[in-house]
Amino acid sequence: MLRVAVPNKGSLAEEASRMLRDAGYRQRSDNRDLSLTDDANGVQFFYLRPKDIATYVSEGQLHLGITGHDLTEESSASVNEVLELGFGQSQFRYAAPQAHGWTVQDLAGKRIATSFPRLVRANLAQQRIAAKDVIRLDGAVEVSIELEVADAIADVVSTGRTLAQHGLATIGDPILSSQAVIVDRNAKFDQQPDPGDIMKSKYRFVERLRGVVFARQYVMLDYDCPEQVQDEAVRVTPGVQAPTVAPLSLDGWVAVRAMVRRSRVNDVMDELADLGCTGIVTASLQSCRAVLPGHGGVSSMPGATPPPAEAPSTSDPTASQLGVAGG
Ligand SMILES: Nc1ncnc2c1ncn2[C@@H]1O[C@H](COP(=O)(O)OP(=O)(O)OP(=O)(O)O)[C@@H](O)[C@H]1O
Ligand SMILES: O=P(O)(O)OC[C@H]1O[C@H](OP(=O)(O)OP(=O)(O)O)[C@H](O)[C@@H]1O
Ligand SMILES: [Mg+2]
């Protein structure tokens, strides 16, 4: 059975479980449960601290895990990130009291508190900055300056509210941008390769989640279009592959269906209305399959789980058969 690690607490936990539910997997109903078996889908979920997940996966005890890119980078675990999940976005940045007006060079000779010491040491070395000390703290890092444990910090910034509340300002460029990812182990020479059924389950799991990530970035748009502006309308909604154009039981009109990027949908609807299209409606998508390569802003990172021989190829353009088209 496929064994998958899911964050049990923190910023990633709730959204990870929601995404798994959208992909058709059972999830725990009690936050204290540390594992759950989804027999119907042949997956056992383990709810672990996100910081530990890359370690379990790299050692081979668990087949796949959901964690943060920054946590993976901080751990020394040897894993491949196979899919970006589009939630848990954050930046990892240096910060210091706003009043100082420091630049990155001012970090030389300073004490820097962080929960990610490995990332900070590597970044300081790369920028040839000799800090006085890198102090490892588990959380609430922003308070460490007031408490005189550190002169500056490196911490996760999402909205920037916590920094502002403590009179801190960011310094320099982000050290790292992060989001939730699926990690797979980077098989070591002393490890057995995964058996075929596990390879197949891994592939299926990643493709299901890829479908949810993709579906969240698009909406399905339907509209009625006067035949004389059909070509212009199709240019406005070219779809992922091509839009579906069907006859309407009204002379001189066609019905068009196309997937459109969620971020652009209102502009697209305005343009269609200006062309004389009508009955323009949108529908949210929960999931989809047959994502065409290079679409959807979902990067298949290096080392992505290869499909086993019997699994269908993602490049199979079944989108048009499904009437799935986008833009
Ligand atoms: N506002 C945020 N605060 C912290 N982590 C965030 C935030 N937004 C996204 N993340 C991501 O969540 C992951 C950290 O999760 P983790 O559960 O370890 O810490 P946490 O959310 O701070 O919870 P905890 O309260 O247990 O420290 C990282 O990948 C981080 O980039
Ligand atoms: O930019 P913001 O939206 O304010 O979010 C960033 C803050 O959130 C996290 O802390 P968390 O609440 O997880 O507490 P912790 O520091 O104890 O981990 C993170 O460590 C920052 O402190
Ligand atoms: Mg935290």
Automatic annotation (TrEMBL):
Cofactor: Mg(2+)
Enzyme class: transferase
Keyword Cytoplasm found: yes
Domain ATP phosphoribosyltransferase catalytic residue range list: 49-192
Domain Histidine biosynthesis HisG C-terminal residues, every copy: 215-286
Catalytic activity: 1-(5-phospho-beta-D-ribosyl)-ATP + diphosphate = 5-phospho-alpha-D-ribose 1-diphosphate + ATP
Keyword Amino-acid biosynthesis: yes
Chief localisation class: cytoplasm
GO MF term set: ATP phosphoribosyltransferase activity
Taxonomy, superkingdom: Bacteria
Start-end of Low complexity biased regions: 311-320
Subcellular location: Cytoplasm
Entry keywords, A to Z: Amino-acid biosynthesis, ATP-binding, Cytoplasm, Glycosyltransferase, Histidine biosynthesis, Magnesium, Metal-binding, Nucleotide-binding, Transferase
TM spans (from-to): none
EC number: 2.4.2.17
Regulation of its activity: Feedback inhibited by histidine.
UniProt pathway: Amino-acid biosynthesis; L-histidine biosynthesis; L-histidine from 5-phospho-alpha-D-ribose 1-diphosphate: step 1/9
UniProt-annotated stretches for the region Disordered: 299-327
Protein family according to the UniProt entry: Belongs to the ATP phosphoribosyltransferase family. Long subfamily.
Role noted for this protein: Catalyzes the condensation of ATP and 5-phosphoribose 1-diphosphate to form N'-(5'-phosphoribosyl)-ATP (PR-ATP). Has a crucial role in the pathway because the rate of histidine biosynthesis seems to be controlled primarily by regulation of HisG enzymatic activity.
Record-given protein name: ATP phosphoribosyltransferase
Organism: Actinomycetospora endophytica
